[in-house]
Amino acid sequence: MDMPVYLDNNATTRLAPEALEAMLPWLGDQYGNAGSAHLLGRLAEGAVVNARDQLAHLLGCQAAEVVFNSGGTEGLNHAIRGVFEALPGKRHFVTTAVEHSAVLALAAWLQHQGVAVTVLGVDAEGQLDLAELEAALRPDTGLVSVMAANNETGVRFPLEAVARIVKARGILLHVDGTQAVGKVPLELAALGVDLFNLSGHKFHGPKGTGALFLRRGVRIKPFMVGGGQERGRRGGTENVPGLVGLGVAADRARAALPEMTRLEALRDGLEAALLAGVPGVKLNGAASPRLPNTAMVSFAGVEGEDLLLRLNEHGICASLGSACTTGQKEPSHVLRAMGVERGLAMGSLRFSLSRFTTEAEVERLKELLPKLAVSHRH
Ligand SMILES: Cc1ncc(COP(=O)(O)O)c(C=O)c1O
Questions:
Q1: What gap in Å lies between CA 147 and CA 223, rounded to an integer?
Q2: Cα R_g (the chain), whole angstroms
Q3: CB 315 within 8 A of CB 2
Q4: Rounded to whole angstroms, what are the CA distances from 361 to 175, 263, 270, 367?
Q5: Are residues 175 and 193 in contact, defined by beta-carbon separation less than 8 angstroms?
Q6: pLDDT of residue 316
Q7: Entry pTM
């Protein structure tokens, strides 16, 4: 069997070979607990210290501001629940309609706890109205949570402008950075963000690893009360092999950032071929600043699921909206928030590239997809 053409990198990525290699000793002979005082323990502790430095370097923050965890969903839970638990006087949460389903579920959970929630809408290009954000802020707003980049469309929010507005009111700002890390340069120290979560498996690190950036001085409840690991913020024996892999993945991602222009050109070429070859194609969010690797394409008169299955038969892996909603027969909440009509939203596919994507793979898709899309119109 030919290797599949993997264009679903916003769902997950392949482990960087350097990360795998670096992890192996920590799954073998070097099995110490990073909390132990003996030789094997000290070695493990050193590896975790090194991983923290590597990740901080990628994020542009202090190592002491990094709390390791199991991934994006955990970071979101820690950030959003932890802030409201630490600030009982704050009873209002602001977020957006296009956040990952985990954030929307957390907003519903907060509402059950009696916290008022404002969900900001987006325009047809997936952008926020900053005046609406400003008007939504209240004296009892505890946290504003927005994503750095959307997992479905790749649309990026203007974080500097959002931070200026939110910080001018002295309110905490959380950013879901899960899709941005490794795809765009980040300088968290300069950005004015208070909390920022990420997930290792989205940038060629191991699954089950991630981190929450907590600006020095931010008050938050621990996510897991335990043995005092992660400066008391997240108890439990450290996942040393995973964190070693995460650190190396962060180093590789930083070094590979210039490669993103190559990906962007491949993505743009794919979109141009679709526009030229298929009538009624819509490129969602294409007029907004976007991640370089993501194309979210709607095909008029086509069932997205049919097209996805045909592509799969040809060994091409793509996605219908976000991975978490695949299998449900509901159009993407992100496209709906952007005002894409239901039928068109149901005919939408996401292609997400990585630095391992080759020109030949994209050429194969460019040749195949217009034919499949035209022949599957109803
Ligand atoms: C924007 C965004 N936030 C959060 C998550 C959840 O991350 P994880 O799978 O590591 O829990 C994802 C994963 O799809 C995502 O794309």
A1: 20
A2: 21
A3: yes
A4: 33, 12, 11, 10
A5: yes
A6: 98
A7: 0.97
- According to CATH, what is the number of the domain 5-14+257-375? 3.90.1150.10
**Closest residue by Cα to residue 41 from 235, 246, 238:** 238
CA 151 to ligand 1: nearest atom? 16
Is 317 designated active site?
no
For atom 4 of ligand 1, the residue with the nearest CA is 72
Would you kindly state where each structural domain of the chain is located, as residue ranges? 5-14+257-375, 17-255
Q: Kindly name the residue from 324, 330, 339, 367 that is annotated as catalytic.
A: 324
Q: What is the DSSP letter of 183?
A: T
Q: Which residues of 343-361 are buried (b: 16+ CB within 10 A; e: fewer)?
A: ebbbbbbbbbbbbebeeeb
Using the atom order of ligand 1, give the atom closest to the CA of residue 74.
Answer: 11
92-96/5-6 β-pairing: unpaired
Q: Give the per-residue pLDDT at 3.
A: 85
Query: pLDDT tens-digit profile of 186-197?
Result: 999 999 999 999
Cα separation, 313 vs 317, whole angstroms = 9
Place of tokens 């389903």: 101
| DSSP label at residue 356 | T
Topology agreement, domain 5-14+257-375 and domain 17-255: no
Q: How many CB atoms lie within 10 A of CB 217?
A: 7
Domain 17-255 of CATH type 3.40.50.150:
no
pLDDT at 322 exceeding the cut of 60: no
